[in-house]
Amino acid sequence: IARAMFQQKNATGALDMLRKAKEADANVLTPEARLAQFYEQYGDSGNAKKWMDLALKAAPQDLRTRLVVTQWAIETGRIDEAQTHAAEAMRLDPDSLEAIILRGVVALFKKDYKGAELYFENAHLKSPGNFAAKNNLALALCEQDDPAKKRKALEYAQDLVRQYQQSPEAASTFGWVLYKNGQLDQADRVLDQVGRTGQFGADTAYFIARVAVDKGRKEEAKRLLTAALDAKRPFSKEQDARALLEQINK
């Protein structure tokens, strides 16, 4: 009902309904945070920011609220804010798997690959079957100038593609880890298959483009990078994508 009222441009009524939901079930997300999500979903980032801030004021010690704000901050490119909120989430619950993973994601965005490795390794040890933990651990390891870590990244990536054979994300990570291990031709084959699915995000677009440049396919790379950057959604390889596009355009 709250969502329907919001869609009818009745934000006040929506908030009242969300508060009733919270009264009925304490496990429901903080009303202010849910309203902020509504605003973001409908393209009003200004009000989303306002209500995320109000959610934190209303429930500063609520872990779920802090996690939602952290995820929102990452998705909207507020990486410094995300780092602050992720650290606070871990203070509230050092054993929270979601908090640890989000802290690792922030580290990836900041290119702190050693830090990302530590967070994702912690998450992987807590939950060996968690896809995000293992997938991101492989990505963090392959970016470091340590042959042993690159090989370990390849082991993790191979495990993931065997376990998740239909996952474009697992294949994307495998392709990138192959590239970082110097296996250009194999990386090109794997990432080409991912590209053909049409189901990939901006980071994967960068992976494919980076390999395409090394294989001499600059126009393909330019198309992919332009589309990824034009989407104006933050991604961890955004700086690299801009630099590569500038290199191509010289």
Could you list the spans in which at least 5 consecutive residues all have pLDDT below 50? Answer: none
Beta fraction: under 5%
For the secondary structure, the number of strands is 0
The ordered H/E elements are HHHHHHHHHHHHHHH
Structural class: mainly alpha
Helix content: over 70%
Number of helices: 15
Rg over C-alpha atoms, rounded to the nearest angstrom: 20 Å
**Mean pLDDT figure:** 97
**Outline, from the CA principal axes?**
globular
Our measurement of the CA-to-CA distance between the termini, rounded to an integer number of angstroms, reads 54 Å
* Largest sheet composition: none
Could you characterize the architecture of this molecule?
By secondary structure, the chain is mostly helical. It is built from 15 helices and no strands.
Provide the fold topology.
Elements: H1 2-7, H2 11-24, H3 31-41, H4 45-58, H5 63-75, H6 79-92, H7 97-109, H8 113-126, H9 131-142, H10 147-163, H11 168-180, H12 184-197, H13 202-214, H14 218-230, H15 238-249
Q: What descriptive keywords fit this protein?
A:
250 residues; mainly alpha
What would a concise description of this structure say?
The protein has 250 residues and is mostly helical. The protein has helices at 2-7, 11-24, 31-41, 45-58, 63-75, 79-92, 97-109, 113-126, 131-142, 147-163, 168-180, 184-197, 202-214, 218-230, 238-249.
